[in-house]
């Protein structure tokens, strides 16, 4: 019997090596995305605790949930960058890498002797991605930043929450995670450019720039009206119905983006007479009669269970969704079919579930990602196989507390 299963494939970045000087969230997410695409990612961690997130509770057998979430597929090497020998190791590794990612405050890597000018002189092809809260320029370049700070200063927080109430922080830390999106985009573009020029490039990723860029139509609305958009809760400023509606046993999301969807909603509700009702026939009319539209839908949904509503709206191809908790979302049939949760072998924890990579290639399946590393797990392997050091040389570095 012939096995027609396609062989696994490391990914399009096979053969690309990344030096990861990142910690906490924004930088690790960017480096993890490169690992997901098949790159070899070498994470340099300080002695003792390593990446700060290794100390973030809750823990299981000493391993932090937070660290596990953004470091899959990486290798860990412990180097003391406070020693000259440790800095030399870092420079030697940079000479062997295609990409470097760091998310210290601007100037820190330069003071360590690991800035772009220094390392590009050693390795002209190095693509150097610096991720920071506010970027390398501007009056806030030296200010520390956290996700909620970036949400506040970008305008994103001001439009999140219920009308008339205090704004609410986004539940997903998008202020940090935008670095895991824009960083890899910029890196991959520079990698393409390097094929033509042979030279790397310094990339300046500002997390606040990234969130400002995601304001999208809300920024354009402010340009058009001269006024700040205000929080709409789960509703939309111009599209109606759009939001969360009560059911007998919970609630459900319904979204009407076009007049065509309004027709489907009316048919699902058994109210075809409302399709051409002059109060509701156009997007503008539904917006101006928001309360009446929402009352119609609420009267229908509150008399039915979520399961019944899902069946009705699905039959009429109305955009809708039950509101799932995180555990339920990870276990839903769509997530299972797409293998968004996989089991990996962790050195300390044994078999554990992790979220899988979210980019797929048709006809070329990638293997399950490697588990996030324990602190220093790959130190000896990296020193021996990347830098060609002997066992005696590695032991000497350990004895001098340069590596651990």
TrEMBL record:
User: What Gene3D superfamilies does the annotation carry?
Assistant: Crotonobetainyl-coa:carnitine coa-transferase, domain 1, formyl-coa transferase, domain 3
Q: Which UniProt keywords apply?
A: Transferase
Where does the source fall among the domains of life? Bacteria
The EC number(s) attached to this protein equal: 2.8.3.-
Q: Which EC class is this protein assigned?
A: transferase
A single MF term (Gene Ontology): transferase activity
Q: Which Pfam families match?
A: CoA_transf_3
Coiled coil spans: none
The identity of this protein, by name, is CoA transferase
The organism is Sphingomonas oligophenolica
């Amino acid at each position: 019997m012939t096995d027609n299963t396609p062989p696994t494939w490391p990914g399009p970045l096979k053969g690309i090596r990344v030096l990861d000087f990142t910690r906490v969230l924004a930088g690790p997410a960017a480096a993890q995305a490169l690992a997901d695409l098949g790159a070899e990612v070498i994470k340099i961690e300080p002695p003792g605790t390593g990446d700060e997130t290794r100390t973030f509770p809750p823990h299981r057998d000493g391993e932090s949930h937070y660290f596990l979430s953004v470091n899959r597929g990486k290798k860990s090497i412990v180097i003391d960058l406070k020693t000259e020998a440790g800095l030399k190791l870092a420079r030697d590794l940079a000479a062997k890498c295609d990409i470097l990612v760091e998310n210290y405050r601007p100037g820190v890597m330069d003071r360590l002797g690991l800035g772009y000018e220094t390392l590009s002189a050693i390795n002209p092809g190095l693509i150097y991605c610096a991720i920071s809260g506010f970027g390398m320029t501007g009056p806030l370049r030296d200010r520390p930043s956290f996700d909620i700070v970036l949400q506040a200063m970008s305008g994103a927080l001001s439009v999140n929450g219920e009308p008339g109430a205090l704004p609410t922080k986004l539940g997903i830390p998008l202020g940090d995670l935008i670095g895991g999106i824009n960083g890899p985009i910029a890196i991959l573009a520079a990698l393409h450019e390097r094929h033509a020029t042979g030279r790397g490039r310094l990339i300046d990723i500002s997390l606040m720039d990234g969130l400002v860029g995601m304001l999208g139509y809300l920024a354009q609305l402010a340009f058009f009206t001269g006024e700040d958009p205000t929080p709409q809760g789960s509703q939309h400023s111009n599209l109606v119905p759009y939001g969360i509606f009560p059911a007998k046993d919970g609630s459900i999301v319904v979204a009407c983006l076009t007049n065509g969807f309004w027709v489907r909603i009316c048919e699902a509700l058994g109210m075809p007479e409302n399709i051409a009702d002059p109060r509701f026939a156009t997007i503008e009319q539904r917006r101006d009669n928001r309360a009446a539209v929402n009352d119609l839908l609420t009267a229908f949904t509150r008399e039915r269970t979520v399961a019944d509503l899902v069946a009705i709206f699905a039959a009429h191809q109305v955009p809708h969704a039950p509101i799932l908790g995180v555990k339920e979302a990870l276990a839903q049939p769509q997530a299972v079919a797409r293998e968004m949760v996989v089991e990996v072998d962790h050195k300390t924890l044994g078999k554990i579930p992790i979220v899988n990579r979210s980019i797929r290639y048709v006809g070329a399946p990638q293997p399950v990602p490697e588990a996030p590393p324990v602190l220093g797990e790959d130190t000896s392997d990296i020193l021996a196989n990347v830098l060609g050091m002997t066992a005696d040389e590695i032991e000497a570095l350990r004895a001098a507390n340069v590596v651990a």
